[in-house]
Amino acid sequence: MCEIVKEKLQENTEDLKSHIIEEKEKINTIHDEIKDIKEDHLVHIEVDMATVRANQEWLMKTYWIIATAAIGGLIVGLFNLLK
After folding, report:
1. Longest dimension (CA), the chain
2. Rounded to the nearest 10 degrees, how much is the dihedral formed by the CA atoms of 10, 12, 13, 14?
3. 16 — alpha (psi -120 to 50), left (phi > 0) or beta?
4. What is the pLDDT of residue 74?
5. What is the pTM assigned to this prediction?
6. SS3 readout for the chain
């Protein structure tokens, strides 16, 4: 009777060990997938930020052109008033 119990216990222990190994492999796979998703997501954020920077640069150039033209117009207007 004792030998049968020992055999069953060993079988159950081996089953548990194999189950634990399978679960660890699943967990590692999930961690790898999460890591890949994070890395891929960072690329998308960097592309979006590059687009925002390009749009911001365009707006700043436009602002300076308009501001320079407005100041030039004010200076010309002052000269015309002084004549």
Report:
1. 121
2. 90
3. alpha
4. 92
5. 0.44
6. CHHHHHHHHHHHHHHHHHHHHHHHHHHHHHHHHHHHHHHHHHHHHHHHHHHHHHHHHHHHHHHHHHHHHHHHHHHHHHHHHHC
